[in-house]
Every structure is written in structure tokens, then in C-alpha cells.
Amino acid sequence: TCALPISALQEISETERITVQSVFLSVFVSLLANISGRKEVLTGVAVDVRPSSGFQDVVGFFVNVLPIAVEVSPDKPFQTLLKRVFDAVVNALERRRFPYRRLIQALNEQTDERNELEAAFYFQTWRSADGAGLADKLIPGVQQSGEFDLVFEVIEGHANWYLNIKYRSSRFGSETIERFGRQFRQLLERVAEDPSLKLGDLFPVDRPAANGQVSFDYPRDRCVHELIDEQTSQTPDKTAVRFLDEQISYRELDQRSSQLAQRILANGVLPGGLVGVLVERSIEMLVSLIAVWKA
Fold first, then answer.
1. pLDDT digits (tens, 9 = 90+) for 153-206
2. Rounded to an integer, what distance in angstroms lies between the CA atom of residue 253 and that of residue 240?
């Protein structure tokens, strides 16, 4: 959880004539696009569905999740994404009372694939009309069950705005989540400085190609890990891998993959054997794959 800069973002929302919630959501969509390398981002947005009359005194969480899909173009300014996100939310609000779970159930009945959102964005306010509120701080460790793999929750407090990240620990590690949080704040700061920046220029690291793939020619009679070993001998201290705000050199990549390869061999894996790799997108994923090739 961390405090967020808000005044500049409110100015952007006023200039662009959109809600400040849409500014935060657009930054979240930008982050998801950078993480996944996808040109279209699908996420969920929590909305209030409490009826306007007859339920004022009913205690309960009258909230539904609306799926929205947004096209992300690296060569377009952030302001373009703001408009796309705002329009997507406005269009989705027309179906705000259709239960999310019923939608997922209907989709699952039509296909064998798993239809479920992996990420969602929540915006909450803890301020009431008279300036008072029910709470003024977060309680660590309290989380609703049945949430998504990744939830970014922006909370409007009495004096500060906060970012609270909820995640499924079986999917993400704490270090990865901390990294996501740092990048989200960095994106907010860059957008606050210049909302006309192109999306491709918002990130300090190289973005994936438009289709998420990069192709180039290489000697077909050599194994990939052999080519990496050759490059390591030529430029051991040059950056070999970048992921978000982390990077390692060819020397470190070689050392880590070789150590893991020895552990794989020690467990009885023979040449040509199958090795399963279960790890989230990270530098460790590439280390693991190279280690398997070496073994």
C-alpha cells in the first residue's frame, strides 16, 4: 500500500473532461499491456449497482464487475488511451446490472476454455458528503475471498489517495507485486508530467514487438544456449535480459542457468527427457528455460 500523487492527475481529468477514475484505470491498462505485451487488454472494473431507491438502509456490498476491452497502441499518446478507456467504461455501464458471474457461467457453457478475468481495477472513496467517513486506514491482511489473480484498488481517503494491491499468492510472488506497484506509481508520475507522451515512451524498458514476438536469423546448426555461451564469452558484463525494472548480465545469466542445470541433472534427468517449467513471466523464467537446454 502506498500514497499517490493526485493534484496533477485531477488537472488531467478536468482538461480531458473525463473522471479521475479513468486516469487511474488508463495507467493500470498501460501497465497490463506492458506486462503482457498484448495490443488489447481485457480487465474488469468494479461498479456500484445499489438501487436508487428502497435500499438506502440495507447493509451490503452492492457491486458488480464489468469486463472491458481496450486497444493499446504504443505509437499513440496517452491521451488517446484515456479517451478509449473512458468510452469503454461508459459503454459497459449500460450493462452494469447484468451479474458478472452469470456472464462467465454462460460463456463457460459455450466453450471448453476457461473464461475468467485475471485482473481487475477497483476505485473506492472513503469520504462521505459531510467530509466524515467510516474508516481512515487500511487493515493489513484483510481480503475478500474469490477475488481475481490481480486487483489494483485506488482508494480516495480523507487526506491522501492510496494504492492497495490484492493478488493470488499462488500466481505472483511478493517481489513481483512490489515491482508492479513501483511501476504503477512511476507511470502516474510520468503521465502527470506529460500526458501527451506516447505509450511506447512511458516505460524505461524496451516494449515487446506489436505481436508480442521478435524474430531474427541465427545459425541453425547451433543450439540457443550455445549461442548464449558464445555471447557471454564476448560481452560478459553486457545486459542480457531486462524485465520491468530488473536486468542481469550475460555472466550472471550463465552462472544462474548453469547452477540450475546441475540441479536438474542431479535429479536424474537425462538428455531428451521432459522437464516441466512452472513460473510466472520473469527473468527466472528465462533462466529456467536455458537451464533445461543446458541439462
1. 888 776 677 888 888 887 788 888 888 988 898 898 888 888 888 888 887 543
2. 7
The pair phi, psi for residue 90, each rounded to 5°, is -60, -45
Length of the chain: 295
Q: What is the pLDDT of residue 34?
A: 85
pTM attached to this predicted model: 0.63
> Within 10 A of 253 (CB to CB), how many other CB atoms are there?
21
Backbone phi, psi, residue 45, to 5° = -125, 130
CB pairs under 8 A, 24+ apart, for 278-281?
280/171, 280/172, 280/173, 280/176, 281/35, 281/243
- What is the β-pairing status of strands 63-71 and 150-156? unpaired
Q: How do 161-167 and 119-125 pair as beta strands?
A: unpaired
> Residues 260-278: pLDDT tens digits?
999 999 888 888 888 888 8
| Helix count and strand count (H, E) for the chain | 8, 8
Beta strand ranges found along 109-191 (DSSP E): 119-125, 150-156, 161-167
CA distance 156 to 204: 28
Parallel/antiparallel/unpaired status of strands 119-125 and 40-48 = parallel
Per-residue model confidence as pLDDT tens digits over 39-91 = 889 898 888 777 666 666 777 667 788 888 899 988 899 999 999 999 999 98
- Exposure letters 18-57 (e unless 16+ CB within 10 A, then b): bebbbbbbbbbbbbbbbbbebeebebbbbbeeeeeeeeee
225 beta partners: none
Mean pLDDT taken over the chain: 80
Sign of CA dihedral 268, 274, 278, 279: positive
